[in-house]
Amino acid sequence: MLFKSNFVLEINNNSIMKRALLALVVSLIVLASTALWFFKTEKSVTPRELLTFGIIIVLVGFGLYFAYMRFTGARRNEPPEDELSKRILQKTAAWSYYISLYMWVFMIWLKDRVTLDTEQVLGAGILSMAVIFFLCWIVIRFRGLRNE
Amino acid sequence: MNNRIREFRARHDMTQDDLAKRVNVRRETIVFLEKNKYNPSLKLAHDIARVFGVAIEEIFLFDN
Fold it and tell me: Number of residue pairs across A and B with CB atoms under 8 Å?
């Protein structure tokens, strides 16, 4: 009990922990609302919806992993951000921005050929942007930032 | 650019975590540096050199 209260105190006193907690809460809210939509829907689930659900699960997993890394880093008294993590984030943002532009061009091209509602196109686009960001982050982390 | 951080760290009997704490970065940054996957800023290079008590060019090897 004392350990738990100390841990909570540590969370409250530490802004790093608060940011990690925020990422955790947002991830759980997204997961809960997706699960609610998945289990409460009256219609049978189409493969496209199943794919969407799968992608959301992967992205929430990424969010939870990010929050976990922040928690463990903060408990080891590591700085929440340093020059490498900032540069990885900057590079990821730049790459994903450029790739997303092409993705939206592709979505506009696709909209003329496939019958999709505007909401569906926007939803798919936003989800694709998140996937692109996630993939860019993975590629940059594995590739490194040598000579840049 | 290559570096001899691992070698100097072993010489000073220092873990990656120790070095990271001394120069105020995450351990992951030291891992990236040792694998030559990241070129540090001048400030970080200076801080690392100061921890080992040597000049920057002794740790970071600039090739043409």
Answer: 47
For residues A128 and A106, is the Cβ–Cβ distance under 8 A?
A: no
Q: Count the Cβ atoms, other than its own, within 10 Å of residue A36.
A: 10
As a residue count, chain A comes to: 148
Where is mean pLDDT largest: A24-28, A50-54, A81-85, B45-49?
A: B45-49
Determine whether the interchain pair B26/A145 forms a contact, defined as Cβ–Cβ distance below 8 Å: no
Give the pLDDT confidence of A101-134 residue by residue, as tens digits: 999 999 888 888 888 788 888 888 998 999 999 9
Going by C-alpha positions, the residue among A123, A138, A62, A137 that lies closest to residue A94 is A137
Does the complex come out with an ipTM higher than 0.90? no
Interchain proximity B41–A83, CB inside 8 Å: yes
C-alpha distance from residue B59 to each of A60, B3, B9, B11, B48 (Å): 41, 5, 11, 12, 9
The answer, as to whether pTM is greater than 0.90, is no
Phi and psi for B2 in degrees, rounded to 5?
A: -110, 170
pLDDT score of A123 = 85
Q: Spell out the residues 6+ positions from residue A131 whose beta carbon is closer than 8 angstroms to its own.
A: A55, A58, A59
